[in-house]
Amino acid sequence: MVLGVRSRLFLLSFVLVAIASLSSSVYLERKLRPMLERTVEVELLRHARMVRETLIARTGDHTVEELNRLADRLGNAVASRVTLIRNDGTVLGDSNLSEAEVRAAENHASRPEVIAALASGAGSARRYSATLRTEMLYVAVRYELRSGAGVARVALPLIEVEALVRRLRLFVAVAGLIGLVVATFVSVMAANLFARPFRSLVDKARALARGERTRIEVAPAGEIGHLAGSINRISEDLEQAVRALADERDRFHTVLEAMADAVITLDSANRVTLANPMAMEFLGLRVPPVERPLKEIIRSSELERLLDGDEPVGPISLEFDLPVARRVLTRITPMRATGGHIIVMHDVSEMRRLETIRRDFVANVSHELRTPISVILANSETLADGGVPDTDQAARFLASIHSNAERLSRLIADLLDLSKIEAGRYPLALRPTEIEPELRKAIEAMLGPARMKRQTIESSGGESRTVVADPTALEQVLLNLLDNAVKYTPEGGRIEVRLGTLDDAVRVEVVDDGPGIEPRHCSRLFERFYRVDPGRSRELGGTGLGLAIVKHLVESMGGHVGVEAASPHGSRFWFTLQSAIRSDSE
Ligand code: ADP
Questions:
Q1: How many angstroms does the Cα of residue 561 sit away from the middle of ligand 1?
Q2: Whole-angstrom distance, CA of residue 102 vs CA of residue 412
Q3: By alpha-carbon position, which residue is closest to atom 23 of ligand 1?
Q4: Adjacent-strand bridge partners of 469
């Protein structure tokens, strides 16, 4: 059992008081008993002298009868045993004996106090009295009378001294007890006084250990003051360190949450210990995957193989696909201290898509350019070699060279337009523009080719509409759509341009009754060089860029484009542009 400061102090004072009481009682008894006996002896001597003087002053007979009566009276007066003895040892009177007993009493001449008194005038002795059966103190003095000399003896049982000593012991015990009570009280007070700052110190230290903010208020002097000062300083340092750590943690979390990259930390058993919001988005998770094994949330055999070994791996990078249509570039870095890893995933889907588009584009452009160039080269070489015998054939060769050169020129013009629009260098002057004049210009431009195929071009939805657009770009869009409609609609077909009003936009539709487009192509039709039938497109002088230019121009003017099937057959290409006047009825 461990005692507290208070209990220890109390125990110490208790033991001290007990020792002090015990030793003082032993000391007192040792010193007081002889002193008391001596006092009693002096008292008895005084009594004996008084008895002697009374005897000398007495005038009556000195018979045994008289003297025994006198001894009785004197014994009563001094509350002691009084004995009168003749110098030959004969007992003449005794306050404790009757006359008959006195006469029968044995000779006292041999008693030491009697011998001493007869010899020197006074004597004392201490011995057991057979007559009274108790320890007695005897004091005797010699007297001289005309009738003879003798000894007057006074005795007192030592029992009385014993009683005095016992009383003394009782006093000492009571005093000790009082001392003990006082000591207890004082020690409790002192312990309280002493232990209070300690207890407060312990309580505050416990509160600190629990992480509470507290200060110990103790008088600055003394050891406890120093201790409290030290604890306060430690607490302040601790608080500062905790605050710095919390700040650091907040910063770390903010950075993690704001990151566009996914961050996952793993322990040595490849279980997730932390995943930032972007990691959850990448992996399509709603709750943080903390504690889950990595292979449960990322299924990449390469990643698994890398992390399956006993030793930490990396830093190393690898790229793989995640189920939620993302391609991620992943960097794995070991955490030497914990034996785990940090995985940082960067979304490279868009980058890879653009790379693919660029690669495809370059391949497509080279492919498109190769055919007319090789035709031009072959025909011009044949003509130069003089390998063409007649002028008719030469004219056909020249016509082929011309048409392929024209195709090249169209291709290059379209490519240049497209790249300008994409680079934002196509000068678009957006302003309120009436659709009708631009539409009329476009239809007029296409009337010639349409007539050659006995096609009709009509417009409906008559009244004038104003949109936010660049007039040249708007005419270009209409031209491209009408050109396609004329190209892909067979002879005798009917082409119609319809204008409609939406909430705050105008919808323009170019509808034909041609072969139409299968729905599977519709979503990709506006991509560069995408053609349903490349051979037919080329045959008709198409570059495969017309619809891509339409899409880019319309979107640059803040509109949308699309294509859908027309009924009963044919296709409906549409685009919308923002209305310059909110509503015609307003
Ligand atoms: P092209 O120069 O080949 O016409 P476009 O980008 O203008 O290139 O058109 C892409 C493809 O869309 C065409 O090759 C053709 O297959 C299809 N297409 C465009 N307009 C029509 C239409 N009105 N009817 C049927 N097919 C069309």
A1: 14
A2: 173
A3: 485
A4: 431
For atom 2 of ligand 1, the residue with the nearest CA is 542
Structural tokens at position 102 = 């006195």
- CA nearest 294: which of 277, 313, 281, 307? 307
Instruction: Render pLDDT for 544-558 as a digit per residue (tens, 0 to 9).
Output: 899 999 999 999 999
- Burial environment of residue 545 by CB neighbours within 10 A (0 to 12, 13 to 18, 19 or more): buried
Quickly count: other Cβ atoms within 10 Å of residue 81's Cβ. 22
- What percent of the chain has pLDDT above 70? 97
> Which atom of ligand 1 is nearest to 573's Cα?
23
Q: What is the DSSP letter of 579?
A: B
Q: Judging by beta carbons within 10 Å of its beta carbon (0-12, 13-18, 19+), is residue 267 exposed, middle or buried?
A: middle
What is the rounded CA–CA span in Å between residue 493 and residue 455? 5
Pairing of strands 326-335, 134-145: unpaired
Distance 531 CA to ligand 1 centre (A): 6
CA dihedral 216, 221, 222, 224 (to 10 degrees): 0
| pTM for this model (two decimals) | 0.52
Instruction: Give the residue whose CA is nearest to atom 13 of ligand 1.
Output: 531
Residue nearest ligand 1's atom 12 by CA: 531
Q: Which atom of ligand 1 is nearest to the CA of 542?
A: 2
* CA 497 centroid distance within chain: 69
Q: Per residue in 421-467, pLDDT tens?
A: 887 778 889 999 999 999 999 999 999 999 999 999 998 876 778 99
What is the whole-number distance in angstroms between the Cα of residue 481 and the centre of ligand 1? 9
Give the pocket of ligand 1 (CB within 6 Å): 484-485, 488, 512, 514-515, 517, 525, 531-533, 537, 542-548, 571
Largest CA distance in the chain: 213
The region of weakest confidence among 22-31, 363-372, 474-483 is 22-31
For ligand 1, atom 4, which residue shows the shortest CA distance?
A: 542
